[in-house]
Amino acid sequence: MTSAQLTLAGMTGRPENVIESFLAASSDGQAQPEKLTQNWGQPWRISAPGLEFKPFPTCAGTHSAAEAAGLLRQQWLSSGQPLDALLRQIVAIAVAFPPGGDIAAPVTVPANGIEARFSLEYVIAAMLIYGDLRLSDFAEGDVNPEIMPLAARVRRMPDPSAPPDALNPAQRFHRVTLSLADGTTRHQQRTRQESLAEGVDVGRKLRLALGDSSPELLAHSALRSTADLQAVTDALLQSLRP
Question: Partner of 56 for a Cys bridge, out of 74, 85, 98, 133, CB 3.0 to 4.6 A?
């Protein structure tokens, strides 16, 4: 906006050496412009580490929190106790992360499904209740009223002992702690690196999104060629038509 206003006011810029001038004006003599092209394309990130697929229909800054909540849910159910007993006993939920680690997910009380994509509170509650983040709970329209009461029990607690997120976002983590009515606590921590290491079942995502499990479409989901990409895109567009 500032650039547009300056242009409308008649201010012009230099046609050449723009980056060099910017660095000179903003670096106080500390610029290292050679690093901009150092090891350029060796390799291209689209080749290594390659494409990164999102496991959930929410902001990537919520994913490790969702997975930590999912692990807590699995552990409870594997002990033979019913889910409703867990949900009844939860008094409070704390989510810890490096300072600044929630910048990408700033919404604490979402007003609609779009805002819910950026809410740690809503995402954690949804995972505890359903064991997955369903596309319907993050679509346009109202939030799911079944999720909101549990989401209201979530509190953000940045961990001051962790390095700030801005220093190395790759080290981001979320630690989810459940405080139960019997005085006990349960916690799980999940890091971004652990999430990336597991990968994503793209075929499953496609089946959930389209309700289509045909072998041909699932084969296209490997995205080995531009034809595969076109086939998947066409199928997704078709699913959005009334």
Answer: 133
The pLDDT value recorded for residue 213 is 63
Name the residue with tokens 């779009």: 114
Q: CA-CA distance, 117 to 114, in Å (whole number)?
A: 6
- pLDDT number for residue 212: 62
Two tokens at 134?
A: 């369903």
Tokens of 43: 């390799």
Distances (CA, A) of 140 to 53, 94, 104: 22, 27, 19
pLDDT digits (tens, 9 = 90+) for 57-70: 999 999 999 999 99
Distance, C-alpha 5 to centroid of its chain: 34
The Cα 5–Cα 207 span in angstroms is 47
The residues, any chain, with a CB within 8 Å of residue 174's CB and separated by 6 or more, are 64, 65, 68, 95, 96, 97, 101, 120, 189, 190
How do beta strands 90-96 and 154-156 pair?
parallel
Which tokens sit at 171? Answer: 């080290």
Q: How far apart are CA 7 and CA 81, in angstroms?
A: 65
Work out whether the CA dihedral 91, 115, 236, 241 comes out positive or negative.
Answer: positive
